[in-house]
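Worked example 3 (structure in, sequence out).
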């Protein structure tokens, strides 16, 4: 039963259509779009999506209340979604899905009519940030501010022609070259000046994020790009009351890491070394083959263990751990990534043991449901009146954003608890702490 002392947050209903806009129409976004259409047509199940398949326990264990999350909170329905995208290549969603071979061709063909009309809009692109790709479907503008305005026009046109009530933007574009925050990223004023002056430290993804927020559209960052992780964009999101979240979808190897590491730590097992390597042959792998782009990914992948294991609190167990991450571009594998981990652990009296994990995964099959969940939850947060960093969405990210001064929570089980307790509290339900008797 709802606790009388808890107030339910007023959430505007999910009426009308929701537009999901993805900068990048590649393996992840096409798999997400084709997959969503397949689910709507009853040709597949939305496996991996918490919003579609997950349940949430309410009250005590004996209460036996476990509604589906999508029935507990008012989320947009899949049938009410319209898709839009930008890319530096002109291929439509059907052509992209056929080329990248993630979803079997006959299923893509069955859905041809549903997805052929999803044609990318011209992209904002700078080869300095993604040197391996050479597209032709690119906007021109004198200044970065001109480009931002063109994106805002795209969003307005999309809303009008597709007759959508609300939009969200989920970055599914390539990983950009490594970038550190600088002067131009510190305030909205400096950032807008930088857009007018073509500051080289403003990456294309930041121009999309700026256009998104200025258009009243929540932004979720699926890549490890710096994008919304700057004081300027966060200030803008707060001022415009727009939810933002990031960064980098937590799908394969890092997902496994954040499942396993909390387990080792819960048993006070020590770790000497964790060596992770990947072979990957899709376009993402090709982009990450450039050292400056891999550095962005590496930072995101390395941050995980340190925060989970807390070597400063457990120096005997984790202070001497050697953590290394590699990604190797290996075209024969396509989207079928192999993530291999060697973990050197030690137990009672320091005796050494090894664990090997070999995850033969399909990268975009793991990422697609995350795009859906992030889009639906970001829209929900917007309707609930929440803005700025959505820490409760850390569950989906390799390098979760946090408000200043707080360390990120990487443990997937804590992240899940946080997500569900956030939903419970918004709906006026008691949080679940798993205390004795609860
Ligand atoms: N698949 C996963 O499991 C996973 C996990 C975490 C993060 N990611 C990230 O998600 C992103 C998408 O992955 P993917 O496998 O679909 O890659 P992909 O290369 O298939 O697709 C990315 C698309 O973005 C386009 N693009 C590049 N710069 C652009 C710009 N400025 N504007 C518009 N489009 C642009 C590219 O042309 C390409 O078509 C990558 O950054 C990847 O690192 C993927």
């Amino acid at each position: 039963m709802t606790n009388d002392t808890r107030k339910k947050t007023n959430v505007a209903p999910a009426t009308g259509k929701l537009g999901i806009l993805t900068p990048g129409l590649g393996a992840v976004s096409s798999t997400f779009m084709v997959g969503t259409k397949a689910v709507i047509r009853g040709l597949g199940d939305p496996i991996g999506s918490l919003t579609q398949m997950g349940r949430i326990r309410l009250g005590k264990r004996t209460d036996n209340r476990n509604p589906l999350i999508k029935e507990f909170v008012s989320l947009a329905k899949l049938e009410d979604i319209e898709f839009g995208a930008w890319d530096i290549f002109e291929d439509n969603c059907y052509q992209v899905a056929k080329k990248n071979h993630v979803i079997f061709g006959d299923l893509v063909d069955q859905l041809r009519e549903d997805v052929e009309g999803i044609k990318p809009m011209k992209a904002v692109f700078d080869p300095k940030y993604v040197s391996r790709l050479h597209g032709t479907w690119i906007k021109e503008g004198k200044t970065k501010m001109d480009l931002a305005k063109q994106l805002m026009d795209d969003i307005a046109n999309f809303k009008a022609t597709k007759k959508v009530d609300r939009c969200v933007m989920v970055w599914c574009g390539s990983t950009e070259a490594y970038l550190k925050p600088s002067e131009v990223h510190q305030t909205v004023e400096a950032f807008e000046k930088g857009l007018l002056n073509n500051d080289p430290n403003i990456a294309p993804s930041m121009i999309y994020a700026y256009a998104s927020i200025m258009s009243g559209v929540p932004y979720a960052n699926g890549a490890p790009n710096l994008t919304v992780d700057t004081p300027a964009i966060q200030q803008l999101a707060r001022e415009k009351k727009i939810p933002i979240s990031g960064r980098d979808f937590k799908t394969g190897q890092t997902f496994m890491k954040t499942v396993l590491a909390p387990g080792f730590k819960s048993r006070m097992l020590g770790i000497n070394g964790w060596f992770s390597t990947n072979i990957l042959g899709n376009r993402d792998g090709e982009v990450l083959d450039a050292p400056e782009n891999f550095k962005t990914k590496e930072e995101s992948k390395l941050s995980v263990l340190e925060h989970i294991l807390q070597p400063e609190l457990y120096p005997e167990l984790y202070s001497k751990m050697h953590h290394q991450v590699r990604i190797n571009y290996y075209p024969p594998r396509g989207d079928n990534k192999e993530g291999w981990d060697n973990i050197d652990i030690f137990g009672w009296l320091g005796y050494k043991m090894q664990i090997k994990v070999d995850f033969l995964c399909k990268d975009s099959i793991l990422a697609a449901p995350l795009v859906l969940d992030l889009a639906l939850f970001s829209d929900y947060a917007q309707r609930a009146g929440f803005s700025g960093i959505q820490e409760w969405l850390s569950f989906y990210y390799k390098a979760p954003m946090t408000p200043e001064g707080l360390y990120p929570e990487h443990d997937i089980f804590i992240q899940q608890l946080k997500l569900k307790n956030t939903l419970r509290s918004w709906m006026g339900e008691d949080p679940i702490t798993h205390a004795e008797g609860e």
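Notes: The longest helix spans residues 363-383. The longest strand covers residues 270-280.
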